[in-house]
Protein: Xyloside xylosyltransferase 1
Amino acid sequence: MAALRGSARRGCLRCPQPAALAAAAAVAVCAFYYLGGGGETFSSATRRLRATPPAPAGPGPRGLHLLFMFTKAERNPALRDKAQAALRSLLRHGRLGAAEVLHFHLVTEGASRDIGLGLLRDLLRGAAFRHQVIIHDVNELTEKLFPIVEAMQKHFSAGSGTYYSDSIFFLSVAMHRIMPKEITRIIQVDLDLKYKTNIRELFDEFDNFPEGAVIGIAREMQPVYRHTFWQYRRENPQTKVGEPPPDGLPGFNSGVLLLNLEAMRQSKLYNQLLEPTMVQKLTEKYHFKGHLGDQDFFTMVGMEKPELFHVLDCTWNRQLCTWWRDHGYSDVFDQYFRCEGEVRIYHGNCNTPIPED
Structure:
């Protein structure tokens, strides 16, 4: 597998002239690097990171893919600390089969890339399983994503220039159109997590997807969408939209996402829902205006087509944020926040401290 993979620009708004395209192709830094043994080549910038240990003889290793965002880290020490804590807990509990490799997909840019690579290099030295690191350039991915998600950004973004208004934060929505076809499943995670069990067990959840499901995701554990869907709920007083579990539809939290990319590619229904006309139709139906990017899209689609989703148990994304308890919903908060069972992944969303071991 080549170290660098480039791709033509699709649907760009300002396409360069052919000569410029040729020059760009000659020097392009593509979306990702494959590092390590097994015959891959290395980029000079990332030669130091190698997969460990060598592959056993026989059939090729089975790849397990895990992706996370790591941007603007050079001016965000809190993000660096969260990433270190999350990865350290993952590695502490992580165990894979002898023929398995965990591919860490790092979506990053500029100075953040160097910070992220240094962090991974240091932490992965003691990993108990084989691994590879794959770098995705934010600008490359954004360029591919923008034509797909442009229409939905105005419905699910906080506003111009804010965190979720960037196309990259809709990556999970259209990852099946971005990743190479040989990657059929991938897990995308936030960095404010703490793993309490083997990450391999989370990959097993793909086998629990019911027919027609393309995404695995846990429920939102605050009454966020009870609030967001207030107008629809007022017009439809018997609706389950925004109601707490187990019988209601509280919406989703995208801190832990299982993306069956092959199923997403094959699902006519899911791809229809990405079309601008369908996004517009649903946002009008539900009077929806959000600010949480992909999470809002999945939540709205889940209200309309719940069969597309495999609902993860709350213990796989035990959110800790309690903001809405103190902002008008104390009477119903515990109905959303309740989670029974041994926690497998803590999610310290809205900067909530995660319990120590």
